[in-house]
Amino acid sequence: MVGYKRLAIRRLGWVLSLGGPPLIALASIGLIPHAGMAFALIIVVVSPFLPWVVVAYFRRWRVAAVLQAYPWQEWPCQHPTRPPGSPGTIVIPFREDFTATFRFIPFPVALAALEGDRPDRIWFAGDPRFGGVVSPVGGHYPVRVVPHTPRREECGGEGFDLARRVGLVRASGKGTRT
Fold it and tell me: What pLDDT sits at residue 70?
């Protein structure tokens, strides 16, 4: 759970770094010259990002639920190169006949750079059909992943109720995207 604590602290830092400056500028209006202009400028710059960061902060509970319900398992992986603007993906061959491609959410993460001497191995906790959490070997940087292409037809069966309970999939079979 050390990795989850780091995740919670990292996401709290995101919220504070985007939410703190507008609050400070707002409190300074009337006390410091041009504080109103600084507040307006900060709002214009921060507004597009703050909702995503706040959602990511409050959705960290899903990472905790996955880590409590599913054990870490080490798997081989590939990090396909991606063109700018496309989502970050990771490919994990779970079986000879089943290879899953996952997207990182809420933001693309360069896990290959964080893996150090084991860039071809990844820890995965979750259901390969619906997503879960990945981390470099050691579990020190957990990141939520979802299937790159949703597979609604695979809902039901063994493990579906657990995946629904921890928030990987909805009752309708549609996977959660946050």
Answer: 93
pTM attached to this predicted model:
0.73
The β-bridge partners of 45 are none
Distance CA 52, CA 73 (A): 29
Q: Above 90 in pLDDT, residue 60?
A: no
Contact criterion met (CB below 8 Å) for 123 and 136: yes
Q: Which tokens sit at 96? A: 């000879």
Q: Which of 175, 56, 168, 59 is nearest to 108 (CA)?
A: 56
